[in-house]
Amino acid sequence: MSESVITYSVLEKSDLEYFHELLGDKGLSTEIEVLKKYGSDETEDISSPPPVVLLPANTKQVSAILRHCNERKIAVSPR
User: Fold this and answer.
1) How far apart are CA 69 and CA 12, in angstroms?
2) CA–CA separation, 47 and 40 (whole Å)
C-alpha cells in the first residue's frame, strides 16, 4: 500500500487580498503579536506562528475561506 503525499501551496499576496476582501480590516491579522498568540497553545513550549490569522464572523465566511484554501491547496489550522 503506497502512502499519498499532500503538497501544500505557499500563501501568496493574492490570497491575502482575497481574505481581506472577504473579511474586511478586522477579519484578518498579520501582526506578529497576534500570529505568536495563535502559533502556540498552553500544552508545550513550541511556537509555530501562521502567516495570517483569519477571524470569520459567520459560517458563510468560514465556508468561503475553506473553499478557497481547498482549491489552492493551502493548509488550514482551525482553532
Assistant:
1) 11
2) 5
Do 64 and 20 meet the contact criterion of CB atoms below 8 Å apart? Answer: no
Cα 28 from chain centroid (whole Å): 9
Mean pLDDT per 10-residue section of the chain, whose length is 79 residues: 84 98 97 92 83 97 98 93
Location of C-alpha cell 498568540: 37
Q: What is the pTM of this model?
A: 0.87
Query: What phi, psi does 53 have (nearest 5°)?
Result: -115, 125
- Judge whether 74 and 55 are in contact, CB under 8 Å: no
